Amino acid sequence: xxxxxxxxxxxxxxxxxxxxxxxxxxxxxxxxxxxxxxxxxxxxxxxxxxxxxxxxxxxxxxxxxxxxxxxxxxxxxxxxxxxxxxxxxxxxxxxxxxxxxxxxxxxxxxxxxxxxxxxxxxxxxxxxxxxxxxxxxxxxxxxxxxxxxxxxxxxxxxxxxxxxxxxxxxxxxxxxxxxxxxxxxxxxxxxxxxxxxxxxxxxxxxxxxxxxxxxxxxxxxxxxxxxxxxxxxxxxxxxxxxxxxxxxxxxxxxxxxxxxxxxxxxxxxxxxxxxxxxxxxxxxxxxxxxxxxxxxxxxxxxxxxxxxxxxxxxxxxxxxxxxxxxxxxxxxxxxxxxxxxxxxxxxxxxxxxxxxxxxxxxxxxxxxxxxxxxxxxxxxxxxxxxxxxxxxxxxxxxxxxxxxxxxxxxxxxxxxxxxxxxxxxxxxxxxxxxxxxxx
Length: 439
Prior knowledge:
The protein has helices spanning 27-39, 42-50, 65-71, 83-98, 109-120, 138-145, 165-178, 191-195, 221-226, 228-247, 249-268, 286-298, 320-323, 328-333, 352-366, 393-414, 422-438; strands spanning 9-12, 16-21, 101-105, 129-133, 153-158, 184-188, 201-204, 273-278, 314-319, 338-345, 383-388. The chain is α/β, with parallel strands linked by helices. The strands form 2 sheets. The chain has a 6-stranded mixed sheet with strand order 1-2-11-10-8-9, with helices on both faces. Strands 4-3-5-6-7 form a 5-stranded parallel sheet, with helices on both faces. The protein is globular, with a radius of gyration of 22 Å.
């Protein structure tokens, strides 16, 4: 146990710092994993991702979220070549400025990303009511719209396929409630499906953008319309993380350390659960976003050729100050093998939330020597600490892209595809079969 609480791995730049407190994951273990990475062709897999090659091999697609970051040009107001796309973006921006209520309909990445992003920024539209509707239960729509006026409400319907059952179910309720189709904007990679609902305002993105990676695409167009400076900064942050992965050896080593230690903890130490905790109120939805990113990307059967038979960990978490009063008892004194990721901001070091983040990271990883008997806590809980110098869209972009890099390197080491989700598809298929049998 490290009494001075010095990190076992560390990286920082002018925006963020990342610290790992995993004493048992030694430099020798890192080198062992890194040697395996050479045998597995990790660097070529990273290069293939950034070069736009088909890394989603089960669906025969590239993964273009790094390409979107790389090619985004903030000096151009709207970059699409399609004139209708430009008109619809302009119409959406005007509608966002005029609307009193903006309702986003979506699920998965079409919900988690925009919701988290919007919570991070301070909206310029202080008098605008933002509502996110995701589920298939009609009572959610009724509850969230009962005090709203259809006349001053617009809808952003986000779905890559525009066939997602939950989204289409809510869309039908919304269309009946609104009775004005011009108040609907579809964000999709499947124009033809959106047109079936007579939606004229359609903003498209590419099939090569996966749902849980779609925050970098037109799925985040609401932020682009409301506060373009924040959207620009977010894209720049992600692009900087990509650049660091390709050219900054310290950053690459740190991200590898995250991925390698995740695999080692799960496979060698039986630590199958990780708690993601945000001590930043504006990033209170980050744990839910990370949960989808990791569990959809890494929740796959192991490759028959891999020595690692345990793939993705269970990810849970929440807003740290609240979590401390719900499940931290288990973390500190329970019998489960758990590790933790803690996110905080150094913007105000006198802030209670920051003090709690630092204190909890020490207690989890280091323990406390002056506790007796029933007060003693577990300690030695592997902990990663992610610290922003300040909370902004640029730092968020950098963090999200870093987490994507961590996930991709983990998948590459495990020999699995982080871009498909056939387990999710199975639920959709059999729900439709069940409903068909009931007709």
